[in-house]
Structure formats: structure tokens, C-alpha cells
Amino acid sequence: MIVNTELEQKGNLFPTKILHFKKDVDTFYFTAENDVVLQLRILRDSVLRFRYTTTGTFENDFSYAITKYASTGYNHLEIEEDEEKYTITTSKLICHIAKVNMRVKLYDAKDNTLINEDELGFHWEESYEFGGNVVKMSKTVNERESYFGLGDKPDHLNLKGKRFQNWVTDSYAYGKSTDPIYKAIPFYTGLHHNKAYGIFFDNTFRSYFDFAHERRNVTSFWAQGGEMNYYFIYGPQMQDVVENYTDLTGKPHQLPPLWALGFHQCKWSYYPESDVKEITSKFRELKIPCDAIYLDIDYMDGFRCFTWNKEHFPDPKRMVKELGDDGFKVVAIIDPGIKIDKEYSVFKEALDKDYFCKRADGPYMKGKVWPGECYFPDFTKPEVRDWWSGLFKELIEDVGIQGVWNDMNEPAVMEVPNKTFPDDVRHDYDGNPCSHRKAHNVYGMQMARATYQGLKKFNYPKRPFVITRAAYSGTQRYTSTWTGDNVATWEHLWIANVQAQRMAMSGFSFVGSDIGGFAEQPQGELFTRWVQLGIFHPFCRVHSSGDHGDQEPWAFDEDVTDVVRKFIELRYQLLPYLYTAFWNLVDHGTPLLKSLVMFDQEDHQTHYRTDEFIFGDKILVCPIQEPNAKGRRMYIPRGKWYNFWTDELVEGGKEKWVDAEIDSMPIFVKEGAVIPKFPVQQYVDEKQIDEVTLDIYYKEGKERSQLFDDAHDGYDYTKGRYSLRTFKLTGKSNELILQQHKEGKYITTYESFKLKIHGLPFEVKEIQLDNVIVPFSDMKMDETGAMFVDKNFSEIHIIG
Ligand code: GLC
Known about the structure:
This protein is an alpha+beta fold. It folds into four domains: 226 residues, glycosyl hydrolase (family 31) (Immunoglobulin-like); 178 residues, Glycosidases (TIM Barrel, Alpha-Beta Barrel), CATH 3.20.20; 78 residues, Immunoglobulin-like, CATH 2.60.40; 112 residues, Sandwich (Immunoglobulin-like). Helices cover 18% and strands 31% of the residues. The strands form ten sheets. A nine-stranded antiparallel β-sheet has the order 5-6-7-8-9-10-17-16-12, with no helix packed on it. The chain has a nine-stranded parallel β-sheet with strand order 31-30-28-25-21-20-19-33-32. Strand 1 and strand 2 form a beta hairpin. Helix 6 runs parallel beside helix 7. The termini are far apart. 54% of the residues are buried. Bound molecules: alpha-D-glucopyranose (GLC). Alpha-D-glucopyranose (GLC) binds next to loops. It comes from Kordia aestuariivivens.
């Protein structure tokens, strides 16, 4: 294995002097004396693609990461040339390319701040062993620069001073700095001088990122093959960088069905059927909301995918129907390894059709997974993906399974030192045949994609729901994900928090951890604290290996059950808020979770904060991560925030002690926010929602909030049948005004809003509802003083 370091510069080769350039619409080609060509494409004013070849010609331009829906088009483009350099100017960026050595500098077009600068720039080492090059890029570190992103790295949010590797890896019981683990997302954001930019290195070979680790003033990235091919994405706001990266690599193709945002219960494994039913009944009996129950590998016949163990599950269709009648969706696991068994139809068919991966010299890729010796479909071949998606017909259409969980798709192979395929395995790579060195990082992604296609087809007109363990950039288009085999320790609670935030700032928001820990067993206190964090993760599932005892909300003691219930209920109340945030993700790539640095990058205190995060855009959360805590110190970002439990208004921009006994956790709401809430239900759409509560947090000034709703499943919303309400709040010393703007054709089931006002600094004397004065005494109110108003109000004035 070649592990390159920047210091090993003996074999490095560099571009020489640029001889000429050529322009082709939005693309420039700069050719050096030694045949190095830099292809620079202007995708948008703030998004540039840099691609280099050392041979004068480029490889076929193919990427699994970049979506065909990526937006292109710029407002301004100009090139100038002087003796030393070429200067390309867009409305957002100025790019210098030095004639002598091709090195690049990028400036903010508005104020000429230097944003990013090549150190050595593009260089490479020839690889005799594999052919091609080890391609490298090095950049100068700016004064006080911080680095974020890179997927699921279980490390401090700020990556400065560290080196990481991207190679999708099965990592049972990984630890705080284990690297690499399950995902390869070669995208990072740099931040300095209050300006953020992103770099997406779209290269699927094993790659490395070094953030001022080896040399204090240099950040570099390199890969063991392929092209130097990266996108430079300018903000200057970090959220814009992530949104633009998401625009390039894709937003989720559709909203999840709302039930997928409910609470999910999983274990390896619930079987037989009577055990599954016992669990689901217990949820209903104890009135703990839950929407999904999972079937891990033991539902299958000898771990053969797409089969059932008929002894344990004699009539899956009936079981799924009965669970469905009780409000449970069933999610089943499907792994990539297909058992070598001549009697097994999936195996036979794939063998006949030549769909399995092969070694370089012809034999099949044989490896051990749960079923024993297996062959593995080549998901990088379109025909194989089509076939795979077709295999879901029975499971989805006939049996009625509503979600599929793709696991072991790194691909994981047992009992071999590298835990995966050897390098020489061949892949189709959508008609660009290659070895596993290139296809490894996308194998799981392509499996999840094929699974997604199957669900989409056979679950239609319902929306697909897929979960994957392995991922490369772009996988967020098809599926949700979880963080793999964690451990029931307090440290892993910390890791789960960092990973979910980091994934969200890496364009993959639909993420959660195995709540409570997969390996080993948590104490009731740890489980409770983990559920408290977990309800603020987009994907909310308890899962455990089952080796060390039970992990259902009632497996500890009654106090645990009660607190867990209270927090899961809160999750269900907040569903319209989360669903609205999801709409914003699907619509323009806005991350569901925002680390404080993304929320307020100008406040330098946020650059090294890791624990606190914003759920959606208005709720600040900070998990308790230690035993016996009665509260904790946390950083409250700038602005004013209401304590969710007490309504106390606190001024941010500083650290603060926040009380949080075991039945509480630090939660704050941004002043001016309007938070929509559903009533508690035992599962999504258990009841028709007749009324939505709006928790209104007074602010002197203005704030905007939104509420999205639709049929909670299906595709009607894509044809305009959704309801998007924008609330504009304006607070004055003796008046609070709430204006509503409505959009979309969907008629919501609810008829009224229940307004609960928090922190009003005056006594209400009068209400004006759509320009009509309503004496306060005439308002319909409940015992807490919350007011009921028609959902279609345009403007309410609450006057003191
Ligand atoms: C892997 C998965 C885990 C699953 C187990 C059995 O370890 O990560 O979630 O329960 O396999 O399928």
C-alpha cells in the first residue's frame, strides 16, 4: 500500500510553464510545456472545477457523486492575461493562475481577500505498480484557518492539525480517533477571516487529507490514483458552501415519508414473530410513540437475502399487515453478500447472468459474511442495479415491507486482514471498467442506490425509505444513514453528537446513531441521555447487538421509561418543525443540523465548540455527556434565547451553566421563533391533526419562521399540493404582530392554530385579528391562556 506524505517529495513531478490557453464556452484549458493540462470550468460564479491531466488528455468524465440536477450558470466571466498570470473573474471570485508553474490563487471578488492559495499546487508521483499517478494538491494555510466536514470522522469538529483517510471501512466498536470508518466524503470547508470556502475532491480512490498536520502551514490532499479533480466552492457563509456542495452532489430526491422521522426500534434480532409482536405491543401498552420495527438478519433463511425463515416467520405478509394495523412500519435488512448455494434462486440468477464481481484473473470474488462464503453483485453495473431493484418486488409489493436497511456494504468481508475485497477485483463502474481501488468507496453507495430504485418502484406511490452504512459523496440523494457499530459508553455519546453534526455539514443530514450503543449495554442513565440527544437527530433509532441484554425503553427501570417517553413525545410534537426543516433540505440543501460555527461563523468562540448545535434553524441543543450530571456549562451563541423548560430569556455570546437533571436537558429556543407542534401521537397519522400549536417566542424586532405540511407521504407535494406557511413576527414594546403568508395547494387537515405566547413583556389588552378588533375576553382560549385562531389568518396584533 502506498501511503504518501507530503514530505516524501523525491518522486514528485510538477507542471512546467504554461504555453497557451484555450476557452470553450465556460471551460478554460491551460497547457504546460510538459503536457500537463488544467481544465478549469466555471459552473457558477462561486463554484469552479479544477481538473488536471499529466498526459495531455483527460479520462472519460464520469462521476457518481455529481448529480445531473446540479445548477450551472454565472453572471459574469472574464479572462485577462499579463506576463505572469491569467486572471479569471466571476461576480464572486477572482482566480489567478501563474504562468510559470500553474499555481492557483483565489480571491473574493468583492474585497480582494485571498481565500485560498496553492502551496506546491498540483503535483504527482508516477505509480509503477498500478499505472497512472498518485495525484496531490497542497494549499497554504491561512492565518487562523479552521477546517470542518469530511463525513463521519469520529473526531473533534474542527479538523485542524489532523490527518484523515477516506476508505470506506467496516469498523465494529470504533473509537474516538479511529480512521477511516464507514464513509468516504472527501469534502471539507475552510474558514478564515470570517469567510468560508469548500473543497470537494471528487476522486473515489483511497484519499488522504492533511490539515496542517505534517507541516503547520500546509493543508494537502491526495489520492492513490485517478485524477486531481476538485471543486472549489465559495461561500463566504459556511451554510452557503454546504448548500452549494449539496447542489452539486444532490439533495435527497424526495421528502422522507413522515413516519420515517418518528421513533424506530431495532435490535439484532427480534425473532420469532411472537417476539416482534411482544415488543410492538409493549410500545402501545406503555404509550411510548414508535413508528418502525426492524428485522435484522435472523428473519432470513440462513442469511440468504430476499428469503424468510419460515419457522420464525410463517406468514410475513400477515405479520406485516397486523403490525401495520397497529401503526408499525416494518424495515428489513438486506446485505450485499449472496450465499453460494446452487439451490438459491438469487444466487443462481446472478451467476447465470454474470452479475457477480470477479478477480483480475477471472475467478469470482469469494468472501465470508453472515451466510458463510458469498459472491457479491457488482452494483457499479447499471444492469446489475436494475436486477437488484427488481428483487424487491416480493418484499415490498407483496409482503408490504416499508423500508430497507443496507448493511455490510463497504463491502465488509470477514476474517481477512483488510476487511474488504482485494484491490484487484474488477468492476464495471458504469462502463468505465476498473479495479476495486477505484470502485471500493462507491460500492455501498451503488448498492443503496439500487435498493432505493427497488423501493421507489414497488412502494409507489409511497416514498422510499432506505438506510445505508457505507456512503460516498452523493449518497444522500437516495438514502438515510447511521453511524455504524458504536459502543454503549459516554464517549460514544460524544462521538454520536459530533458525527451527526459533521455529516450534516458534509451534505448528508439524514443521519442518526445506534441510540444507547450497539456493542455492550448502557446503564439506564446513559440510555436516557442518549435518547435525549437522539430525538434531535434526523434519523432516530435505538439499535443494539442484543448480546448484552435488552435495550427497549422499558429495559431499565420505570424512571428511565418515563423520561424516555417524555422525550420521544417531544420528538413527535416537533415533527412539523423537523418536517419543515426537511423541506428546506430537499428544496435548497439546507442542513438539518447546524454546528455553532455554521450558525454564527463571525463569532470566533464557535470555531472550537463541538457539543452544542442548532436543530433546524431555531432550537439550540446541548446533550449531557457525563454521568451524574445535574446540568452543564455550555456556550449560548449570540442573540437571545429562551430556556425551553422555564422560558427564562438568556443573552448569548457567552458560556453559561444550565440545569439539567436526568429528566431534562439543555434546550433553548431562539427569540422571535414560531415553533409548530403536533399533538402527541403513538405513531405518525394515528390521528387526524385538527390543530397545530404555535409556540411563539416574543422578540423585540423581527424574525421569520416556516411551517410545511402535506399528505406526509406520496409525491403530490411535487405537484404543488403542499402547504407552506411563512410567519413574520414583529415585536415592539407594547405590541406583537404575527403575519402569515401562505403558499401551495394542499388543504391541511388542521383548521386552527393554538397560539402559545412566551415571554410577552406586557399585559394583553386587545387583539386585532385580520383588522378586526376582538376584545381579549372574546378570544377563544384554553386554561393556559393559549388562544385559538383560524389557520388562515393573515395578521394578528397582540396589543398591550
Ligand atoms: C452489522 C451492523 C449492525 C447489525 C449487524 C447484524 O454489525 O452494523 O447494525 O445489527 O451487522 O446484521
